[in-house]
Design brief:
Blueprint: H1 9-21, E1 26-28, H2 45-56, E2 65-70, H3 85-99, E3 106-109, H4 118-130, E4 137-140, H5 144-157, E5 164-168, H6 192-200, E6 205-209, H7 231-247, H8 251-260, E7 266-269, H9 275-286, H10 291-299
Bound molecules: NADP nicotinamide-adenine-dinucleotide phosphate.
Length: about 300
Amino acid sequence: MYFGTRQDDRAAFELLDRFVEAGGAWIDTANCYSFWESPTGHGGQSEQVIGRWLRANPGIRDRVRISTKVGMEPLDQGGFEGLSARVVRQGIEGSLERLGVDSVDLFWAHGEDRGTPIEETVQAFGEVASEGLAARLGWSNHPMWLVERAQNLVTGAGLPGFSAVQQRYSYVIPRPDVPIEGQDHPFGMVSPETLDYVRSNPGWELWAYTPLLLGAYDRADRPLTPAYDHPGTTRRLAALGEVAAELGVPRGHVVLAWLVGGDPPVLPIVGGSRPEYLDAAVAGVRLELTPEQRERLDRAG
Ligand SMILES: NC(=O)c1ccc[n+]([C@@H]2O[C@H](COP(=O)([O-])OP(=O)(O)OC[C@H]3O[C@@H](n4cnc5c(N)ncnc54)[C@H](OP(=O)(O)O)[C@@H]3O)[C@@H](O)[C@H]2O)c1
């Protein structure tokens, strides 16, 4: 998210090079990253940095997959761009230009737009995919009833379908009745229903954002927010601490291993400014839990 705002080209290129060397493939960005960090009040910086990195490394495009999003870029007059046909079309065109590529590998509807009929959004995304500008399509921060309604429309119209959901998810679960600062999407959290949907629809993927809760599992300077203050968290953190100690790894490693090896498997999208955070993420997703450790973690809470 923070390439081009918190991180300059040198720091971002170092992370991207290291990611590819470690065997990483997917790079997640959005047209609106990171408007809240930019004096312009608009996004695009992250895609521009990735574009410059791709151009500086001829041939590297074939080794990475790029996912980007449309829908959450702020408007000058207030509010967000939404998911109208015009916005979706201009969104993909702008992203391709900033990234300097002919197509992306996954294109997400970033947030809900209840002011635009879902039929219009589905049609616009379908056209983007039909024209080969995006290999796959996904929903982020949408309720599952809307995802399913859209899927029915897609099938009926013979349009390319969606196959991925991107929501906030981690090992400890927040209370639903306490707002989380910075989490402005009312249906942005993974729920048991999200897991069931992905499990029951072969070919669908679940991507988890903020999987490390901004470093809270391993950093005293990133405390859990009040929404996590409930007895389930205490029990989950105890189980997590136990398993991490047995394996001799930080708790964040176990969280990533738990996500990747779960049912359904979850793809964690990890952010971070330092090479050692990237190395930790790679170690975490490669860590294997025993069935007994997984069961202990699942049962806690
Ligand atoms: N679809 C959506 O609405 C949405 C929303 C949010 C995010 N996302 C996607 O998800 C990605 C990750 O999101 P996120 O940044 O919120 O989540 P995150 O990965 O849980 O948190 C990243 C933060 O955790 C810290 N960190 C990472 N690894 C660490 C480690 N091993 N030890 C200690 N601290 C560590 C980093 O701190 P430093 O800042 O000090 O490096 C970084 O700020 C984003 O880049 C974006 O692509 C999508």
